[in-house]
Amino acid sequence: MGQRTLLRGLTLAVAAVLPAYGPAAVQAAESAAAAVAVCGHTSAQPTLQQGSTGDSAVEAQCELNLATKPSRYTPIAADGSFGPATQTRVKEFQRCAGLGADGVLGPQTWAALNTWAAAPHTCATKGTSSAAQTTVCGHTDARPTLRQGAKGVEVKEVQCRLNLAMEPFHYPPLAIDGDFGGGTEARVIELQHCANLSADGVVGPNTWAKLVDWAGRNTYCTPSRPAGYPIDGLDTAKYQHPGGAPIDWKAVRASGAEFATVKATRGLNVTDEYLATDLEGARAAGLAVAPYHFYTGTSPDTGAAQADRFIAAVRATGYTGQRAGDLPPIFDLERMDDGSGRCPTYGTVNDAKAWLDRVEAAFGRTPMIYTQKSFLDDCLGSTTAFARYPLQLADYRQSITEPPLPSGSTTWAMWQYTDAALFPGIQAPATADVFNGTQADLDRLANR
């Protein structure tokens, strides 16, 4: 897959909310849940027990596989025959969901199953690996070559197997609707990258083989973390607060994160509503922290004015750039965040420098620049004007060992390598980074 256009705000606006856990959460979900065909077989949900057969049994078995694989349960056969293995799995699921474990699929179990199958939940007790199953989705055993535009049960089989083969907390489940659209193609490409296959988005024999293998046993495709860079960090904005949920920064720190960059402002008129709480909360928890500004070049010569707004906003939080734990301020220089992928209409090197110069004078710190080589090449003529600034580079490709450097630059400080990281204490995916240096290097950069 080619290098993505990085829209640090826009891509996170659609981040999936992670579920709450425990019986109370399940009961709340049950009360609002309607009967749905999560696997695409049937929305009919009669009471099922050992001896039941038919489409509802296939749907139940498929949903059980989706609901329990995040807890490392090997899938059961989705063959439409409710036998002892299905009954055992129903009991295991009922215990996970805090329900009476009688092995009967009644209304409460169906409601919980719909919820768990459609979004990742984990059981208190982990499953154990057993022999792989061949039939785990129950749609078809046919394996035709499929690509974008295809429709039908074969596409449902692919979508279901992709949901089973991809690590569920990083890859939101696909709708199993039988329509091979752009979302399905993108997920196929992600699987192909994980499996070291040709990443063309086409489900041919090799991709089918990997899907059948991974979906049927206790394994997943997981986003790779860059090797050789042991210090982790993350980036946050309002999108990491779904429904106003706070970030538990102590939990983030306890997970091993050492630094955070927090969105402060955008353009001339936006201050992130969680700037003050997140910047100070992260710092109080022991992370090194930096505020960042998203530059908008929608009007000419606004860099200095955007800098003034940023300076005022972050000073109001207590940030000085000089306190222990303060990382340099960050200038987010990338394509427009309107979904177009266009270069900033009035973005220029001189306007960017106006922001950088004013912020450097205000805080006595050389700002860091968040960008990527392709942006500077395409939008600012491969300029070397930013060679003296530390860089936070964004590149989500799994095929590289470090991000490519812009013209004139000799190193990078941070690498944002994914937009789908999960951290304890945050109820939505976040972008994650690694630091290019030692803990002592990070401490020096953070005035510690």
Automatic annotation (TrEMBL):
Record flagged with keyword Ribosomal protein: no
Record's keyword terms, sorted: Glycosidase, Hydrolase, Signal
InterPro entries with a match to the protein in the record: GH, Glyco_hydro_25, Glyco_hydro_fam25_subgr, Peptidoglycan-bd-like, PGBD-like_sf, PGBDSf
Signal peptide from the UniProt entry: 1-28
Keyword Magnesium: no
Superkingdom, natural source: Bacteria
Ranges for domain Peptidoglycan binding-like: 73-113, 152-211
Record family assignment: Belongs to the glycosyl hydrolase 25 family.
Protein name: GH25 family lysozyme
Species assigned in the record: Streptomyces cellulosae
